[in-house]
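Whether sequence alone determines local backbone shape is best considered at the level of individual chains. When preparing material for the folding task, we compiled for one chain both its residues and its backbone structure tokens. The sequence in question and its structure tokens are set out directly beneath this paragraph.
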Amino acid sequence: MESGLLDTAAAAGLCPVAAGRRRVGSTGTARCFLSCSCASRDCRVSASYSHSISRMLSGVRSAARKRLFRSDPAELLGVANWSETGGGGAGGHQHWWTALENNFVLEATDDEYGGVVVDADRLPADRAAFARSLAASLSYWKSVGKKGVWLKLPVDLAEFVPLAVKEGFKYHHAEEAYLMMTYWIPDEPNMLPANASHQVGVGGFVINDQMEVLVVQEKYRGSSLDGVWKLPTGFILASEEIYTGASREVKEETGVDTEFVDVVAFRHAHNVAFHKSDLFFICMLRPVSSEIKIDETEIQAAKWMALEEFVKQPFIQEDHMFQKIMDICIQRLRKCYCGLTPHHVVSKFDDRTSTLYYNVAEPEDVNCSAA
């Protein structure tokens, strides 16, 4: 069909697009939405997507694995010398590119599990183009046996979310700047990993040489915590070490600088915030300053409190878990118990540096003299 179109164009002295419009108009089977200004064999195309042109060139869909219509226009139309048809040069290529750009299979990279990760930086700019490309992409990925599809939509493209949902994509997780969606292609159990299941919190057990504990009263608290003095606590930030987060939280809430000693215990709980599980690490910290300056947006008050007085609070005495935590902390102070200290190690498996927490087992350290 392409060669016939070019013959028609040559005989009439028209550009290929004008000839295509004439042919389509004469058959009455479809309408062409391409606009074209032509002078003999010189054609300048300013176009939006055209269903009729895409059908005319549908045979080239198998020419590219990642994107459709990536090839040179001469190859697409079967023209030996594209420049002789008036389409040569950067301008000619660009006009045809504009006319066909909405037919791309979305740019994506293969993951190591037989799936694809869509390039969020190269998504179409409008809803219609995205909807067409997404449908074409799913069809292509199914045909080549792909499994999972990861689609990251930046917040400025949030209008695309309903279009993805309509195609069968599911929510996976959301961050401040994007929403991640997934699609499982095979007719078999979905093997894509679920969203992160845990949040990580820390508590700082800061005790000085006078056996005083740094304690706080939170500004916003439930009625069960009225009048209760507790350890400074908070959440670990993304990519933050546990030991760094513990010292940071103490500093932010009380103004006291500390050094990390070890993790004395950690608690694992479920169905906490938003039905997620929670890991809470109690860290022993050594103060290197003593002046208190509270963060008034979070903390009502802070002070140094005698350890004995702190432990005798009804809140601790009546709560089995907190009572156990304080028993462990006291045993740590008496050097009858060793906590977990961080050690940086590199794994040959992924060549990454990780932090491994474990007890020091050297004979000279069995009494936890580092404290």
Q: What stands out?
A: The CA atoms of residues 82 and 88 lie 5 Å apart. Residues 127-143 form the longest helix (17 residues). Confidence is low (pLDDT under 50) at residues 1-102.
